[in-house]
Amino acid sequence: MPPFTVVCNCRLSQAHIKLLRIHPNNLQLTIRQIFDSLINMSWIDSFMPDYLRISLRARVEPTVKHITKNLNNGRLTAVDENSGELVVSELARQSIVSEYHYLDIPIGELIATQAAQNPGFDFYSMNLDDVLLFGESKYIAATTAHNSALKQIVDFRNNKKDDKDLITVNPFIPQDRKVAFQNYCNGQKGYIAAFASKNESNDELINKLERNKYFKQLVDCTELICVAIDV
To answer: Where do the structural domains in the chain lie, given as residue ranges?
Structure first.
């Protein structure tokens, strides 16, 4: 069972744009589950040939130490500025995989070249049509962080961060689905804006999104998913 309840899963004004809103069932337990998931490196064995596992383990281990510190060994009772984006990233990733059956790829912080300083997108997935999706997560304690997440995606797209991240994503795409990279070269790619949400209703949140200037700049992509997480 996923550690969250889906409170909204709908399409917005255009069919290729979705809102997925989730609420953690028990935040302390959710943080513990996220911690256990992120520090468990057994997933490496399912992705890599032997000669690459050594490299990936060496890359992941420093980040696991950073995660251990920020999540206080999984004993946090609430998110804060140090843990917020990590929790949002992982819950968004899990919800996309669970609700849409999209490809399960480890979050960017684990597979990036720098420990806990992921220079690109925060997480990735691929939809059922073999279109790569690039996700960015934002947490702000006082307000819904949709504007920050959408702005970061627009900035990253303008700076070709998605192009640069292809080499990071490549090892995690199954061999029989590598057509995703040809699709990408043909202009088919999507984005996931994940953000902490507060007390507004679903209708209020949808209105905020559709009026947002950065949201409007992203409607031309193949798929856009907004993941609101009530933390």
So the answer is: 4-229
